[in-house]
């Protein structure tokens, strides 16, 4: 998952409501910047939404004023601005910092230009101190270790980062992205072990906390299913309810505590069971009577217009609720569409 990368400005256009501002496009994002600072084709450092800027570095000071806690989408004079677009000149030693070979190739302008362009997409978050935003952990989480059995964090890629990899024309499901705490329940057959994790840690199942309260209602069903099919599976979901990710736009933060699954990971083969698989989470949860995230649109053709609608075309769902976004489920994977209105108001 991208945090901060070297990218190229692909488009520059006038801001319709502000003479001193203009709009730049990087990857699939747009950002509002001071006029005259960038040119089309410039290389920049692009810092993604849902990241945290360093508090102790000079280059970040002007951006922290607008994103003190996390980088997110904001509206500036009526236009969405997503992420941070920073010129390479923000770092006085940018050649040494970003381009390892700069000293040996500086004498060769042609090779330098080629290497310069080849750097597009390079991850530089560690070099400049940018980190992934992590919601605060509850005090009673009862963490007992890292994620076991090769489990990774539950981070869907945003559509803006996928460029030509979006499977337009495929039949997909659109599932609701619930704003809560990532929770995984699973069973590893070889060790006869039941798993309970948060997004980053394995959780003690024997201590009462916001994760373990769901174990009694799902454990037996998950173990039985795994044994029936001789599979080690991790059911990945979102814990939600009172006190979890509370905000004025999160409808799930006002509900009783519950757990909705959104994917199944095959621990033996280290892959997700996607749409079309017999172990696709929709099929399994419905069979077992487990709560899952709602399907907003089922078996629809994926188009640019559909992505645009859920990204910035609508503020609320037909039921009147704000929504964090949707996840596009297709035969070879999944990715998320974050609703810009929700992100700007969270």
General description of the model:
This protein has 346 residues and is of the alpha+beta class. The protein folds into two domains: 129 residues, Beta Barrel (OB fold (Dihydrolipoamide Acetyltransferase, E2P)), CATH 2.40.50; 203 residues, D-amino Acid Aminotransferase, Chain A, domain 1 (2-Layer Sandwich), CATH 3.30.470.30. Helix content is 19%, strand content 30%. It contains nine helices and 20 strands. A five-stranded antiparallel sheet has the order 3-2-1-4-8, with no helix packed on it. A five-stranded antiparallel sheet has the order 13-12-15-16-17, covered by helices on one side. The radius of gyration is 22 Å and the shape is globular. The mean pLDDT is 89.
Written as H for each helix and E for each strand, in order along the chain, the element string is EEEEEHEEEHHHHEEEEEEHEEEHEHEEH
Q: How much helix, percentage-wise, in residues?
A: 10-25%
Radius of gyration: 22 Å
Number of discrete helical segments: 9
Q: Average pLDDT value?
A: 89
Q: What proportion of the residues form beta strands (DSSP E)?
A: 25-35%
Q: Trace the largest sheet across and list its strands.
A: 3-2-1-4-8
Spatial shape = globular
CATH superfamily of the largest domain: DNA ligase/mRNA capping enzyme
Uncertain spans, ≥5 residues at pLDDT below 50? none
Kindly name the structural category: alpha+beta
């Amino acid at each position: 998952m991208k945090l901060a990368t070297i990218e190229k400005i692909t488009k520059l256009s006038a801001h319709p409501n502000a003479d001193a501002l203009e709009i730049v496009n990087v990857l699939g994002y747009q950002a509002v910047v001071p006029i005259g600072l960038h040119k089309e084709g410039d290389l920049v450092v692009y810092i993604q939404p849902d990241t945290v800027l360093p508090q102790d570095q000079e280059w970040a000071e002007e951006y922290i004023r607008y994103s003190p806690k996390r980088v997110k989408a904001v509206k500036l004079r009526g236009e969405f601005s997503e992420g941070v677009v920073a010129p390479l000149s923000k770092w006085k030693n940018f050649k040494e910092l970003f381009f390892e070979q700069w000293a040996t190739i500086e004498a060769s302008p042609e090779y330098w230009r080629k290497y310069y362009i080849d750097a597009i997409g390079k991850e530089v978050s560690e070099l400049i101190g940018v980190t992934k935003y992590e919601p605060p952990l509850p005090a009673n989480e009862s963490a007992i270790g890292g994620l076991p059995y090769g489990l990774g964090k539950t981070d869907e890629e945003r559509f803006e980062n996928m460029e030509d990899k979006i499977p337009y024309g495929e039949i997909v499901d659109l599932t609701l992205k619930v704003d809560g705490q990532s929770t995984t329940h699973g069973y590893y057959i070889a060790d006869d072990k039941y798993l309970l994790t948060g997004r980053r840690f394995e959780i003690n199942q024997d201590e009462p906390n916001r994760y373990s309260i769901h174990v009694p209602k799902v454990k037996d069903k998950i173990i039985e299913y795994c044994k029936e099919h001789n599979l080690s599976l991790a059911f990945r979901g979102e814990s939600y309810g009172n006190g979890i990710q509370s905000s004025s736009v999160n409808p799930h933060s006002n509900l009783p505590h519950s757990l909705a699954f959104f994917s199944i990971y095959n621990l033996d083969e280290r892959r997700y069971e996607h749409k079309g698989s017999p172990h696709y989470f929709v099929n399994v949860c419905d069979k077992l009577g487990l709560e899952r995230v709602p399907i907003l649109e089922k078996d629809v053709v994926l188009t640019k217009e559909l992505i645009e609608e859920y990204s910035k075309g609508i503020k609320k769902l037909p039921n009147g609720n704000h929504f964090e976004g949707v996840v596009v489920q297709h035969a070879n994977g999944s990715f998320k569409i974050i609703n810009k209105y929700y992100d700007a108001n969270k």
